[in-house]
Amino acid sequence: ATPTALMVGTGRSARMGILIKNGEVLEAVNDVKTVIFDKTGTITVGKPQVTDVIGDSAQVLGIAASLEQSSEHPLATAIINKAKDSKLTIEPSQDFKAIEGKGVQAVIDGQTAFVGNDKLLNDVSVSDELKTQMATLQQEAKTVVFVGEGQRVIGLIAIQDAPKPTSKDAISALKSQGLKTVMLTGDNQAVSQAIADQVGIDQVVADVLPADKADQVKKFQASGKVAFVGDGINDAPALSTADVGIAMGSGTDIAIESGGIVLVKNDLRDVYKALELSKKTFNRIK
Ligand code: ADP
Ligand code: MG
């Protein structure tokens, strides 16, 4: 490989907002068979909004916001914003605990309360009515979290994170090159499938805990090289494990450090451009 060609190639891509950090990704790119995407913040805008509150909405939102004060998750931001918009006072809470891929819990007025998905519920039972309402909301591509106090679920909050306007085009460009597209997410199957259908993703792997994202990438590597596109702290191991790690420029520092390619413009269509440019650069220098 001639260093000059490498620099020319990467210099040109840099002007397009595609940073190629090393030569290794260039070598892998010709053999990429699968492109795996994180969902939140990568395929979707990553700024979820609360759309529905089931139960006594002031109470449900109030408790949820009180717990989410200490969380930096996009869902937490959505809940706090909604509580503030509704002019609710957000009470303090103690002993905050984030449970990865599940939700959060804390103590309010001496009682343990929680917000999160069904994996957080353990022995707490949910009425059939709430289950039906949850299923309906999930089919509308909304993420639903339970809000509970002690051993009792007091309501649901539905949160919607719309796909980015360019996601559909970005996916179809990759598919037109014969690449398989996959969504890998900690969110549940129903919501993830609804969003995948909106943007044309071939396959969904849902309910994946952050610690298991890298293992999922390895599974797909059994059938060829893998590119992984992500933005979050929880995507860093998958970005390093993939043959081509592609980080969104808007992502967390650790994601950007872990990616071999960084998309400065945060345009998902640049995944296709990055792969094409890398191929051209590699074929020139080899
Ligand atoms: P993703 O892969 O989509 O970025 P995460 O692993 O961050 O997902 O979260 C997976 C799921 O865990 C969320 O969809 C939600 O159900 C639950 N969860 C995680 N953090 C929180 C939180 N702070 N509040 C409520 N629910 C949460
Ligand atoms: Mg994400």
TrEMBL record:
<protein>
    <recommendedName>
        <fullName>P-type Cu(+) transporter</fullName>
    </recommendedName>
</protein>
<comment type="similarity">
    <text>Belongs to the cation transport ATPase (P-type) (TC 3.A.3) family. Type IB subfamily.</text>
</comment>
